[in-house]
Methyl-accepting transducer domain-containing protein
Amino acid sequence: MLLLVGWLALENRQTIVSERRDSIQYVVESVHNQIEALQERVAAGELSLEEAQQRAIDNMSSVSFGAGEYIFSFNDDLLVISHPSRESGTDMTDYLDASGMALYPELLRVAQAGGGHVNYYSTRAGGDEQLPKTSYVAHLPEWGWSLATGVYVDDINEAFITDLIHSIGILLIIGLPVTLLMGLVIRDVSRRLGGDPRYAASVVRHIADGDLTQVTQLSAKDQESLLFNINRMRETLAETIGDIHHGADQVNSGVEQIVGVNEELSTRTEEQAASLAETASSMEQLTATVKQNAEHADHARTLATRAADSAQRGSDSMTTVITTMGTINESATQMSSIVNTIDGIAFKPTSWPLTRRWKLRALESKAAASPSSPMRFANSPAVRPLPPRKSKP
C-alpha cells in the first residue's frame, strides 16, 4: 500500500511538472506569434522596425501569470532586451547559476536549435536563495531575439511532499483497518490451507508429477485444512495405485492362463477339425452305404411286392386246393359208403365173384375220374387191380 501511495504521488508530481512545462511553452509561443505578426506588419510597411520592436517589448512587459512569473528576452549577443529586474543592455554572458552553468549561452543554444526547455537554478524576486526553475525559450531569427519564461519547481516538490503526507495519512486512516482485516483474512486462509500456499502448490505439483512418496508436513492438530485433505488424497491415491498394480498382476496371471487355455483349445480344435474331417469322410461313406441300402430296399420292395403277389396267388391256389380237398373228402365219404355196401354184398358166397368184379370196375372208373391214384380209402388197404379172371376149362 505504501508503495502504491508513493507511486501515485510521483505520478501526480510528474503530471504537475508536465502541466507547468506546457503552460510556459504556451505563453512563450503566444508572445512569439504576436511578435511575428508585428514583423509581418514591418515587412508590409505598416510599422517601422523601431516601433514594432517597442510594441513587442511592451507586450512582453505586460505579460504576467502564475505567482509573479514573467517573460524576458535577450539578443544573440546575450544582451538583455527586456527583463523586469534587469536593465536593458545588461551583458549576461558570464552569468552562472548555482550549479555553475552559464545560463544565457545555454538558453541561446537551445533557442537557436528550435526552442525547448532548460532546467537551472535562479533566485526569486526579493530573495537570495537559488531555487530550481524550468524555462522555455524560443528564437526570433529575423530580429536575433530569444524569448523565455520559466516557473519555479520548488513549489512542485512542496506540493508533492504535501500530497504524499496527505496520502499517507489517508492510508493510515483507511489502510490500517484494511491491513488488519487483510491480516485476519490471510491468517484464516493460511489456517484453512494448512501452511504456505507455495508449499501447498509444491505438494500438489509432486502429486501431479506422480511422486506419491513425498511426506506432507502438517501441524499436530491439523484435521481439516487443505494440506491435510491433499495428504489424504495422496495416501488414497497411493493405496489405489497399489491395488491397481496388484489387480494388474492378477490380470496378467489370468491372461497367461487364458493364453495357455487358448493354446490347449487351439490344439483340441485342430484335433476336432481332424475328427470332423474323418467324420465327414465317414459320412460320405455312410451316405454311399445309405444310398446303396436305399437301392437294395427298392429292390427288396420290388421283390416283396412280387412275393406278395406270389403269396396271393399261393393263397388263391390254397383256397382252390382246400375246396378240392373238401370235394375229395366228400367223394371219399361216398366211396367209403359204396365200399361198405360192396363189402356187404361181397361177403355173400353166392354172388361174391360177380359182385366183386362189378365193384372193382366201378372203383376203377371212379379212380380214373379222381385227380390222384391209386386211391386209398380210410382204414383200408390200397386197392390193387384184380387179377385177370381165369376161364373155366
The radius of gyration is 80 Å. The first strand starts at residue 71 and ends at 75.
